[in-house]
Amino acid sequence: xxLTKKPESGVKLNQGDKLxxxxxxxxxxxxxxxxxxxxLKELEAMIDPxxxxxxxxxxxxxxxxxxxxxxxxxxxxxxxxxxxSNPIWNGNDLEVVKTITLxxxxxxxxxxxxxxxxxxxxxxxxxxxxxxxxxxxKYKVEIPHYSWLTLNMxxxxxxxxxxxxxSMKARFAEYGNELIHIERxx
Length: 186
Hints:
The chain has helices spanning about 35-50, 55-75, 75-80, 90-110, 170, and strands at about 1-5, 20-25, 25-30, 110-125, 140-155, 155-160, 175, 180-185. By secondary structure, it is α+β, with helices and mostly antiparallel strands. Strand 2 and strand 3 (about 25-30) form a beta hairpin.
């Protein structure tokens, strides 16, 4: 978790919302189940004892992220509840479901959290050879349709990157918000 360079608040999500985007692979739709409450209660009950002994917000959020990722990786039936009737899934869609779930868990625990989508850019210098002159563009990584959270706390805004919450890749990444198309039930 780290301070954002320029605050971008993101959006609040509701159960029943549809997140829709179009990319080169076609139209993607993720529907946030309206009956998510029971699964979230189960997940929060599982997380409570894990975070009870933590010290500080960063450690607590790191444990919550780890718990949500483990839960989703072991419960694909839970993930299937987010699938629209005719989806075209790509590799990022599972990560979006993890981010949405993390959003609802943190919100349920009283955090002022927002959902964001866009492009994540960073330079993967970890894989560059030591002591060489680095061609920055050669190691530039751009991940389109990437999701992350922003957390407002103590009059500051923090980025929570569920894939790399406290790694160097997250700390030096740029997150560019793009338009999130949300369809809501009236």
